[in-house]
Amino acid sequence: MTRSDAATVVGAPAFWPAWGVTIVLMGLVLGCSGPRADVPNEPAPATTTDIPRIPNLSELDPGFVTAVRDALAVVDRDPSSGAAVGALGRLYQAHRYVDQARRCYERAEELDPSSPDWPYYLGFLAAGRGAHDEAARRFERALGLRPSYWAARVRLGNALLAAGNASGAEAAFRAVRAASPGTPWGELGLGKTARRQGEPETAAQHLRTALALDPAHRETRYLLAMTERQLGNSERAGELLAGLEAAEVSSLDDPMLEAVFELVRDTQTMIRTANQRLAEGNHVAAGRLYREVLRLDPDSYDAHLNLGVLHGLADRNQEAAAALERALEIDPDRADAYALLTIAYIRTGRAEEGLRQLEKALELDPDHPRAREILRSLGGSLEQLR
After folding, report:
1. Dihedral of CA 359/362/368/373: which sign?
2. Which of 23, 114, 159, 386 could be a cystine partner for 135, CB 3.0 to 4.6 Å?
């Protein structure tokens, strides 16, 4: 994680600086909304009244607001365009507005029933909320429109397996293996299916082949280790697990989904904008932006840290402590969070715990300027204070 430099807030109380920060981008975008019929009906008359919108859009990140307004303007110009409505859905999905994304894709499918994109995205959202039967039907429809899109067949196999249809999953994964023989996905899927069917020897054969195709594939390595252990090959299982940390989370070659991820806005810019609002004294706007980052990436160290700063400025020290504790759960080797947590604990009557946080900050960075400033303000060395 990128280290951050401190930025001073004009007029802020002592010990609560606004820290300039960066964050790590998120992982997969999943869905969590309710099911709907799979086969598109005749499209209703094209209007924009049923196009989903985000309440209080103007309160969100300016870059996202501009992108959504631009996409809505395209829809307003031609509400009968399934491509335009679907593009708005991609933007919503990229930023986890999954209910709005689902409704856009449903409408896009009504307007443009020949495109495989919309049932594919609907299948992805259904799988994300655990509606595996629906997801399988959606992926089957997408494959009916584009049979060569083997990434959809991988997802179909996973959905069928999750839904308990092992024979259907096996057929899907065999088709994946035939369509993409140089990738591990078909063999990996067949290995998972064999494990589900209680056939560890068969599973091991498929998983060994998958690992040979992609030796760094983390999921394959872990499943093969568990299977080898089940077969009594404990030494081999240990070797596989020993290399697990260095293995990678290989991503499926999936241009449709990549088209969504490409729209994810730069959350580092969001953090910088929030820091600027905080420095300007606009704490409400800063708080909205930090929370928006956490909605997109709940494990953002920097957003939790800055929310701690924001709560400290408002003298909400219990909330400040909770935010800083969460930041340290994510990255326990950051002196800046320990230094700020010192003040939060002292202000909530936990002075001894506060001194321990200060000690940790100075252990990590003996010359940390904020920790040193806090120590001076408390009137001496840690030994004198105890």
Report:
1. positive
2. 159
Q: What share of the chain is helix, strand, coil (3-state, %, to 5)?
A: 65, 0, 35
Q: Report the 10 Å Cβ neighbour count for 377.
A: 10
Contact predicate 22/271, CB 8 Å: yes
CA 206-207-209 angle, 5° bins: 65
Residue 321 burial by Cβ neighbours in a 10 Å radius (0-12, 13-18, 19+) = buried
Tens of pLDDT, residues 326-371: 999 999 998 999 999 999 999 999 988 988 999 898 898 888 888 8
- Specify burial of residue 3 (Cβ count, 10 A radius: 0-12, 13-18, 19+): exposed
Phi, psi of 29 (to 5 degrees): -100, 115
Which of 352, 175, 179 shows the shortest CA–CA distance to 253?
179
| 74, two tokens | 């395209």
Backbone φ, ψ for residue 28 (5° rounding): -75, 150
Coil, strand or helix: which one is 217?
Answer: strand
Question: Would the pTM of this model clear 0.85, i.e. be above it?
Answer: no
Nearest Cα to Cα of residue 340 among 361, 319, 366, 364: 361
Retrieve residue 176's tokens: 């994946």
Strand intervals (E) in 15-97: 18-19
Rounded distance, CA 271 to CA 46, Å?
39
C-alpha–C-alpha distance, residues 342 and 360, integer Å: 10
CA–CA separation, 78 vs 74, rounded Å?
A: 7
Q: Hey, what are 236's tokens?
A: 């081999």
Q: Please name every residue paired with 217 in a beta bridge, in sequence order, or none if there are none.
A: 248
Q: Which residues contact 262 (CB under 8 A, 6 or more apart)?
A: 94
Nearest partner of 278 among 321, 311, 325, judged by Cα: 311
SS3 at position 18: strand
Give the tens place of pLDDT for each residue, 196-228. 999 999 999 999 999 999 988 889 999 999 999
CA-based nearest residue to 185, from 159, 161, 219: 219
Look-up of token digits 């606009």: 282
Burial class (CB in 10 A: 0-12, 13-18, 19+), 340: buried
Tell me if 160 sits within 8 A of 136, measured CB to CB: yes
